Amino acid sequence: MHIYDILEVKIIDLLSNKLVIPTDRTGHRIICFARMGGNLRLAGHILYADQGSCMLLAPGDKAEIEISGGSDLLGAVYMIRFHAYAMGEKEPSMDIGPCVPYETKIDVMPLSRLVDLLEQVAQGASDGSRHEYVERCKQQIRLQELLVLLMENVQTMHSFTDDTSAVQHTINYLNHNYREEITVELLSRMSGVGRWKYSDLFQSLIGKKPLEYLTEVRINRAKELLLQTDDPLREIARRVGFKDEYYFSRKFRHEMGMTPKQYVRSKSNKGVTNERSASPFTRVVAVGAVLGDLLALGIRPIGADMTVIGKKVVYREELNNIADVGLLGEPGKVKALNPDLIVYSGFRLDWIDKLSDISPIVAIDRFEHTYDRLIKVADLFGRTNQARNWVESHKMRSTEIWKQLFSYPMDKRKQATIFVVNDGVIYVMGMRGVAFTLYHPSSAFEPSDKVKDLIARNIPFFAIEHEMIKDYEADHLFLLVDECKRSKHKAQKVTNHPYWKSLGQDHVHVLEAKWNFDDPITMDRLLPLLPRIIK
């Protein structure tokens, strides 16, 4: 244990080129890049610092701080010089122990806590000496807190045995610190996993890209605050991590299909979110991918766009007495049903305004992960707990089935590519449809390299010619084919391709296109078939 005595706190606001840090034979120095990045030049090497990076310099170390381009940020970099005394010793110690390594970049989280401590130490150093003894005690405590923060982050840096657990740690961090200014670069540095590999691992664990998931976490917390408080929008936006209420309102509408005020009105006086209350909507029309979500929740719409989906899904027996409102919901056919709610997940966004003249409409992103989409639909009908229970049950059942099928480590996952032939056109699937099941975080398969690129660019599917299947090479190929003759003819060209034949029967799998949906009913029915499909 040591007692600390702060000798100097230097705040660097402006760096046009570089700053030489004075050598101190007995003093230790902490350099913190609080509001921007830069370089710390030491004897023989350079440490590249990001915002939030800190370094501990040993007595006698020579160093220069360098920030290219210059900066006029207030409190850009902090330098704290201090003595450390071992218990019972009168001379400063030359070593404060192994918990904070010297000349090592430490990326500190949360950044707000770091900046707050630095500002407290700087403020204490600038105060008068009227209560010198009391103030020195306070400063010692502040420095100890700063060193403990560094130690905790060093401990985190060395606590992971694999990349997956490192990424999972950042997910936990995000869930608890969503108010902070969070970037993918920051999370990647925190995990120690490379930027592109980090994003792939994050999406395989959560089903969303990091910033998409951050937005979802913030919006979910905002929904709670909107219903629990009367705070103005600007305050709610600030409390969940958005910089201003206008950007918050845009993101909220994009996620929820309505403005924050409309959301509050939809929940007030009707008990829509109360699980014990009956749904206020009795005449529902579904357009797009949400039909299966509604049926899985026990909600039977009076109308849906049955032109395509009604002929291709696995649950056709459940579609009796549901009126067809035409491809993507023709306004005239929808109006004739006199609905009190339209749940829309189609891609004809220009029709939303026309449909909104008929009845209230809620837009649901058709490319959203099944788990998130189902919960959003359930929120409308007071069935959130039912949806969450299904999500947890499906996660557990998926994990169990994949464990039964494969027992090798996750870093030995095989690459797979999914092709779908629909109406005579061959598509490569990104993270859509059956991919949610085959690329499950616990599964034996991960997307092939070119499919990862599609997913990274948020492309759900991509049309190709049969000659191009070699471009999407993988350990396993899956082909899903619909019932039309053109599709069967195209599928034959795929299965006759030399690359397809070269893989052998154990590595190619042909399925009906009806499995290429990601609603809960299809996913539930597909799970028990996986052993037969794959083996």
From TrEMBL:
The keyword Ion transport does not apply. This is Helix-turn-helix domain-containing protein. Keywords: DNA-binding, Transcription, Transcription regulation. Residues 282-535 form the Fe/B12 periplasmic-binding domain. The keyword Cell inner membrane does not apply. Residues 168-266 form the HTH araC/xylS-type domain. It holds the Pfam family HTH_18.
